């Protein structure tokens, strides 16, 4: 989504209603894998404070570039802390940041697939994964498959998609045979199931950053609560 789109959304969100000026919206940019957590926290903060919260989801890398280009984000939920580091090197001020959860990678197939006997069997056919060239979930998946000794075999059959939720959806609609996603994504699906748990990728961490704006403190603090992450299938932060 373009920066212009989000500027327009903020204008609409800040418009007066029946002559009353609502509080300005808090804008959260959240990795696709954290959609349920970010949207749940947004609804909670809206109920508690009356302040509107806009959640924009996508690949961490894409969102980071949007922020760097001037998109009006107040809170950034990243599937890779390295992208928060990158924002700081680009001159984006980060007021606070904290690791909030860890993730595990699994291979999923259509509902009823049943467990695989080994990783090679689990990764048969066309395999969807987030684009490993820039999306954290895809990069983690490639690292795990390299560790399994299977990346060279899987790569020609891999279908790179925009983010990890798109990889899950590809299995759910039958566009591919398998997908590599986070366990937390698999847990929310009614049309896909885990067929194999991959060897842990190095340091899969999720981080929340509060950017240097006047808004976002309520959302940031709510996202630091461990229960909102473990309740959504993520592992506790170290």
Radius of gyration: 18 Å
Biggest sheet overview: 6 strands, mixed
Question: In percent, how much strand structure appears in the residues?
Answer: 15-25%
Low-confidence stretches: 1-19
**Helical content, roughly?**
25-40%
Q: What count of helical segments does DSSP give?
A: 11
Task: From the structure above, extract its key features.
238 residues, 25% strand, 5-stranded mixed beta sheet, disordered N terminus, alpha/beta, 6-stranded mixed beta sheet, 11 helices
Structure description:
This protein has 238 residues and is an alpha/beta fold. It is built from 11 helices and 11 strands. The protein has helices at 3-14, 35-49, 60-68, 81-89, 119-122, 136-148, 151-154, 164-172, 183-187, 217-223, 226-230, and strands at 26-31, 53-58, 75-78, 94-102, 105-110, 127-130, 158-161, 178-182, 192-197, 205-211, 235-236. The strands form 2 sheets. Strands 2-1-3-10-4-11 form a 6-stranded mixed beta sheet, sandwiched between helices. Strands 7-6-8-5-9 form a 5-stranded mixed beta sheet, with helices on both faces. Strand 1 (26-31), helix 2 (35-49) and strand 2 form a beta-alpha-beta unit. Helix 2 packs across helix 10 (217-223) and helix 3 (60-68) packs parallel to helix 4. The longest helix has 15 residues, at 35-49. The model is unreliable at 1-19 (pLDDT under 50).
């Amino acid at each position: 989504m373009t920066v212009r789109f989000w500027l327009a959304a903020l204008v609409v969100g800040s418009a007066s209603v029946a002559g009353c000026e609502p509080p300005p919206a808090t804008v959260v940019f959240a990795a696709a894998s954290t959609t349920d957590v970010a949207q749940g926290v947004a609804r909670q903060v809206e109920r508690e404070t009356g302040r509107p919260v806009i959640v924009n989801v996508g690949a961490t890398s894409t969102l980071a570039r949007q922020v760097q280009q001037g998109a009006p984000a107040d809170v950034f939920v990243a599937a890779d802390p390295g992208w928060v580091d990158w924002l700081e090197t680009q001159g984006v001020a980060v007021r606070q940041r904290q690791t909030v959860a860890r993730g595990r990678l699994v291979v999923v197939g259509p509902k009823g697939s049943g467990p695989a006997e080994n990783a090679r069997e689990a990764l048969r056919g066309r395999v969807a994964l987030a684009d490993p060239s820039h999306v954290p979930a895809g990069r983690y998946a490639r690292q795990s498959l390299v560790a399994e000794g299977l990346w060279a075999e899987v790569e020609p059959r891999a279908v790179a998609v925009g983010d990890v939720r798109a990889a899950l959806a590809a299995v759910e609609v039958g566009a591919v045979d398998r997908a590599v996603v986070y366990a937390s994504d698999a847990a929310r699906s009614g049309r896909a199931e885990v067929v194999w748990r991959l060897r842990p990728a190095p340091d899969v961490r999720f981080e929340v950053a509060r950017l240097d704006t006047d808004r976002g403190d309520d959302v940031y603090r709510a996202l630091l609560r461990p229960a909102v992450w473990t309740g959504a299938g993520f592992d506790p932060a170290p």
